[in-house]
Amino acid sequence: MNILLCPDSFKDALSAELAAKAMAKGVRSAVPDAQTHCCPLADGGEGSLDALIAATGAKRCYQTVHDALGRPRDAAWGWLSEQRTAFIELAEASGLQHLSPQERNALQTSTFGVGELFLAALNQGAENVLLLLGGSATNDGGAGMLQALGARLQNAHGKPLAPGGAALAGLESLDISGLDPRLASLNVEAAVDVDNPLLGERGASAVFGPQKGASPEEVAQLDLALARFADICASTLAHDYRDLPGAGAAGGMGFAASAFLNATLKPGIELIMQHAKMPTLLNNADLVITGEGRLDGQSMSGKTPIGVSRAAKRLGKPVVILAGSLGDGWQACLDEGVTAAFALADGPMTLEQALPRTAELLAARCETIIRLWLTPAAP
């Protein structure tokens, strides 16, 4: 019996790698000699770099960059030397998790550090970059990244634009002649887990701004500023990317990646499964167990367990999802190749009580699943 264990992280509780190890412990409690393969996954957001490094054996590198508020930070990135491929996670440089709730300020946070990671990859000799978008503290449309890469964004007085999304309202000119010339031959794929456009009621500011500290008034301010940025970019490039699905990912980084890096935007889980060689792993599996912190109707838009189940369905492999909680609309997963889904809690408990027990609960659920799986069918 070959069991493939490929969870995402369980937010605020376990990384994907630790979740997979807890699952494996539960499987072995039921069948000590079971063959298990742990393949931690992610969908492009926080934790995606760790999942890719675990799946591919990439070297973990570090670069001192500016965080979202301009402070120095040692950010990790991944390097596959033979493939000349770099893995860059936006959240490592400009992630929301590096700011306290009091520090979250979507008006001023910048993606400058992401550009610095690109420069580190280029200096290493990168020919390919997988850019992982998600978990950002920013709403600057990728303007900070462009500045780090050599673009000049200036106000009406010819002064360099200040960092942050709000400053884009005063953008007067954009000069991209100074962009690092190595970018022209760089192949960039961007992993996204949303299909939002840059602007409007489904745009970066309206949908994701509030979690980055923006008030309703600031959301409107940021949307207007991004519209100004999009207008200037369209004039400069003679092409408008604002309505591209995924342009609003990571505070508009999907927009900048497409417009200036010629990046292809793809669902994050599909890109990460591709690098993890999931088709081969799924083909060899008898049972697949995946999971993440919450499963609900929104998970169908491309979250890790659904990406796994869709791929497994094509090969006729059974999939079980373990989630911290099952929310409204979770039953839709049953139409996506999922055999069964279970919540972890073994009794009434608060989130605060459940989080420290996540590994224990994952192991217990996996043991139960395997025991049930091995029960002979009634005659």
UniProtKB/TrEMBL annotation:
GO terms of molecular function: kinase activity
InterPro entries the record matches: Glyc_kinase_flavodox-like_fold, Glycerate_kinase, Glycerate_kinase_RE-like, Glycerate_kinase_sf
Family per similarity comment: Belongs to the glycerate kinase type-1 family.
Protein name (record): Glycerate kinase
NCBIfam families in UniProt: glycerate kinase (TIGR00045)
Keyword 4Fe-4S found: no
Pfam families: Gly_kinase
Keyword set, alphabetical order: Kinase, Transferase
Keyword Transferase: yes
PANTHER family in the cross-refs: GLYCERATE KINASE
